[in-house]
Amino acid sequence: MEQKPIVNSDLIGSFVTIELPGFPGAKKKPEKCRIHYLEMGKGEPLLLVHSVGQSIYTWRELMPLFARYYRVIAIDLPGFGHSDRPYSLSYSMDEMADILLWTMDALHLSNTHVLGCTMGGMYALYAMAKMPIRFNKVVVLTPSGISKNYPLRIRGLEGPFGFFFRESYSKKDFKKYMPLFYYDGTICTDAVVDQYFSTCDDFASRQAIMYAVRNFDEEPVLKAIAGSDHEILVLWGEEDKLVPMDKLTELREKIPNGVYYSLRNVGHWMHEEKPEMLADIIDRYLQYEGE
Fold this sequence. Notes:
- The chain has 12 helices and 8 strands.
- The protein has 291 residues and is α/β, with parallel strands linked by helices.
- It starts with 13 loop residues before the first strand and ends with a helix.
């Protein structure tokens, strides 16, 4: 059966429900959260984890390529895409890592390869550090948070006036800033902007983005994986306008088991610019058995 194009729609995938712990000390029952996901292909499981403000749509080019050899599962993290926006979630690093593990439970995933993009890469690394036995090989694309090179409208979400920046952006802002995520800005067409904006244009989605940006902290993640036996493939775009290659040099010292590879002529979202090349690199890594 021909696979439908990946778009931002709650009709394209399926849902599983996980249970959140709720507020500490609260008398109310734990909050339930529906997670939207899309599955494609057969073989070893490969879990795809997007970044803050994204959805499974970001994997639209890469997912069908992996589905030739793997059972690929792309999820919408809570707060994004067509998953729920839980009221009790603070979008802390601990919560996001735990949610990945709970979602893996709901999807009956074990010994899973995982591919995470930017902030989603850090969430995946933290989940692996918490429960390494659940994971096979780990690949992260530009694992990082917000840098000084991001536009003020995005950086401002981290500060005390984040609520102002949360409320003030528009589709016009998306169209202005989204090309910065690519080396070749022409990839960011009006249709792409529309798809990304469609799941961010409401209060709950903006609130999720603000809290996820505000509560992002890579230090506990890097500390947790310092003693890990897992080998991690770290990929970076050499033309990244938002998080330059200097960050990769810094991570070399903090991720001891990292295998590092940089790609020419790609920017921050390399998986959208060079999906065929990236799929080949990652597949070779996942298939490599070592000596």
